[in-house]
Amino acid sequence: MYFIGLFLGLLLYSVIRSTVVFVSGKAAGFYLASFNLFGFHYMRAIPTEPLKKHKGKFTIFPSLIMSKINLDPKEDKRLAIIEAVIHIIVVAIISVIICYLWVVPSIGGRKPFYLTFHAGIVESMVLMSFALLFVTLNIIGNAETQLRNEYNAAIRNLRDGFGYAQLNISRQRIQGITLSDSIKILYLDMCFNVALEKKDVQEMSAVLRELDPILTKDSTLSNMKRAGLPYQGAYYSVLLFSSYIRTHQGNAMRYYQYIKEFIEEDMDFNGRTILAFYNYRILNRSDVAAELLIQAENNLITADDLKFPRASKNLYKRLIEELKDSLDEAGKGYFDPKPILSYDE
Fold first, then answer.
1. What is the pLDDT of residues 41-85, one digit of tens each?
2. How many CB atoms lie within 10 A of CB 106?
3. Peptide bond into 230 cis (omega under 30)
4. How does pLDDT run across 209-260, given as a tens digit for each residue?
5. Using an 8 Å Cβ cutoff, are 171 and 186 in contact?
6. For the residues of 197-261, what is the DSSP string, one character each?
7. How far from chain centre, in Å, is Cα 92?
8. CB of 308 within 8 A of CB of 332?
9. Which run of H or E residues covers position 32?
10. 257-290 per-residue burial string, b: 16 or more CB within 10 A, e: under 16
11. Do residues 287 and 310 lie in contact, with contact meaning Cβ atoms separated by under 8 Å?
12. DSSP secondary structure letter of residue 308
C-alpha cells in the first residue's frame, strides 16, 4: 500500500502543479499554449487560434505550458517564483489533512506512519515539492538558467507572431558570463537570425566569430552528429552566411561537410533554401539551385506553424525571393524578375 501511495502522491502532485500553473498563469494574462494527458496532446501557436491535436507521448501525469504575447523574461521568472510558493502551500495543507486522516481514526495495531498508504502520498508530494523549490532557486541564482529562460521566452514570443527584430535578444547580453556551449549556441544562433532579419551584416559577422570556435570543437561536432538539434541550426546559419551574405568558398565547403548528411536529407524549407544558396554561389550549379528553391517554396506553404513560427517563414520567404532574383538577374530565366534586396554593410 505504501508504494501505491507513492504513485498516487506523484499523480496528485502533477495535478496540483498543473492546476496552479494554469490558474496563476490565467490570472497573469497568460494563455494555454500546450496540454498533454494520456497521449492527447493539444497545442496552439497564438492565443486566437483553437487548440489543435498533435501526436504526443503517452503519460498519465498531466502537463501544460502557459504563454503570453511579448513575454518579458523577468515577468516569467516572477511568475515561476509565485507558482512555486503557491504550490508548496497547497501541498503543505493537503499533507496536513492526510496526516490528520491517519491519526484521527482509533485503529489498533497500525503500522508506523512511514510505512502506510497515507505516508506514501505525503512523502512523494513533499519530495517533489523540494525538487520544485530547488529548481526555482536555481532559476533565481543561476545565470545560465536565467539566460535559457530568456531564450525560451523569445521562442514563445516568436510563436505568438513576433518578428526576430522585436525580440529582446542581444549578443552583448552574454558577454563576460560563463556559459555552457549548448546555451551559447542556442542564444547566438537566435542573435544571428535577429541580425539577418535586420540585414545587419556586421552583427552577423560578429555573432559568427563567436560561434565558429564552438562549432568547430570536436565535442560539438560529435554532439551535432549524434543529436542534430539544437546545434544543427547554428551550422545552417554559418553555411548560409558563407554561401550568400559574405561568400567564402572555403568556409562554406568546410561547414557543408560538417552537416552534409543532415542538410541533404532535410526537406524543410530552411534546409532546401540554404542548400540552394550553396549550390548557386559556391558550386555554380544554377539548375540545382532552382530546383531546390521550388522545393523550398512548396514546403514553406505546408510547413507546420508550431515547428516554424511566422517570423521564420517570413525570413526564408524573403531569402527565397532574393535568390530567385539573383538567378534571373544572371540571365538564367528560372523565375520572374523582381527587385533585388541589398545587404548594407
1. 777 656 677 777 766 666 777 777 777 665 565 666 777 778 888
2. 6
3. yes
4. 999 998 888 877 776 666 555 678 899 999 999 999 888 999 999 999 988 8
5. no
6. HHT-HHHHHHHHHHHHHHHTSHHHHHHHHHH-TTHHHHHHHHHHIIIIIT--HHHHHHHHHHHHH
7. 33
8. no
9. strand 31-37
10. ebbeebbeebebbbbbbbbbbbbbbbeeebeebb
11. no
12. S
The H or E element containing residue 196 is: helix 181-198
| Helix H or strand E encompassing 54 | strand 52-55
Single-letter residue type at 263: I
CA 280, 283, 287, 290 torsion-angle sign:
negative
Stated length of the chain: 345
Query: What single letter denotes the amino acid at residue 221?
Result: L
Round to whole Å and give the CA distance between 176 and 194: 21
Q: Output the CA angle 57-15-76, nearest 5 degrees.
A: 85
Contact 71, 51 (CB under 8 A): no
Q: How far is Cα 248 from Cα 252, in angstroms, rounded to an integer?
A: 6
H or E, element range at 270: helix 269-277
Pairing of strands 31-37, 52-55: unpaired
